[in-house]
Amino acid sequence: MSDFVDEAVLHVKAGDGGHGCASVHREKFKPLGGPDGGNGGRGGDVILEVDRNTATLLDYRRRPHRRAGNGTPGQGGHRAGANGADLVLPVPDGTVVTTLDGEVIADLVGHGTRLVVARGGHGGLGNAALASPRRKAPGFALKGEPGEALDIRLELKTIADVGLVGFPSAGKSSLIAALSAARPKIADYPFTTLVPNLGVVEAGQTQYVIADVPGLIPGASEGRGLGLEFLRHVERCSTLLHVLDCATYEPGRDPVTDLEVLERELTVYGERTGVDLSDRPRLVALNKVDVPEARELAELVKPMLVERGYRVLQISAATREGLRELAYALGEQVAAARAARPVEEPTRLVLRPREIGEKAFQVVPIGDNVFRVLGDKPARWVRQTDFTNDEAVGYLADRLNRLGIEEALARAGATDGAEVHIGDEDDAVVFDWDPTVDAEQTVLGPRGTDPRLG
Question: Region labeled Disordered — which residues (predicted)?
């Protein structure tokens, strides 16, 4: 079984933030020395990093569930909890990260490139950080936020300059072995190559990578054979090399017919995926001319292919005839493509601050005297609240009031006893709204209702 895997679904979960600590400093002759609860630690992030030593996504196919470390809770004595460890997942160069719906999140190219796919939750504030002139000894702390959870698809598109395209047993594996130091499996039966092979070729001052893509057959773009599975590996190639078998004895096959089939499959694949391959330079290698009948056929069809606009070379991967000329011809095409490529600018971090006056929330009617409050801040504050502590609930009401939610509900038509949902539909917290109660009146006292702080 091959160890090459170029597609995997990954379920990632960032670390949860640690809870804040509610603690009061105590020592002899100083029973209430003030709040000293520390903050919780931040949860670890899940990070994808391009690693040149990673060539497959096999590990993620075997273990698709990955989780970063959680932050630890804060402690008394102003001791903050430790941050959770980040989880760094190495991926091959050329990995495309998408959602399960196909939306592209990032295209990871270049050793060391990093992408934070799931951010760890913030740690909750301890009661020392929540103290204020009005609330001198908070009897509560904020809970840590849960880390982000995400399902993503990883798809590897091989980074290569030249893609070798041809029928099974056309000699592509032998050609890559002859041109480079790669040692792919070689045999004379169809579908010998089950995974793409890479080789590095040097032609004068130009060094480039060639990819041996598993053989195509008619209907490959519709899922027949191995073509559909591995055609994605030619998407990044700047040059395509058609390797045509001039020594095949299969009925109905000849170099011209094979070329037409290959071009048709590339066109259909481009139409299905939206990747236009028509502008990629093509070269044609008429292979196996060491066989006398194959040489005669190559000399017969070469003028026909040249007339169609192809640059045609006669080669033999077995005897290495014509390989030097082929290597330099490919090198010229690669060098020209690199020169025409726009200069890459370093990635810039763009900060877009919130527009002045922009609301941090939105009140949406969803029924008769039923409203939903949408927004990151209200949802985050609800997640941080310990609803078993009355003082914590009062603090939440105070924050929501200062944010302007009370006024927004009144403007939206909410009346006494309105049902208010805060958060997304699947995890919303429901309140009964009482506009006659001042939010600040819910603060119960210097030590709250937690019996451990009495």
Answer: 63-83
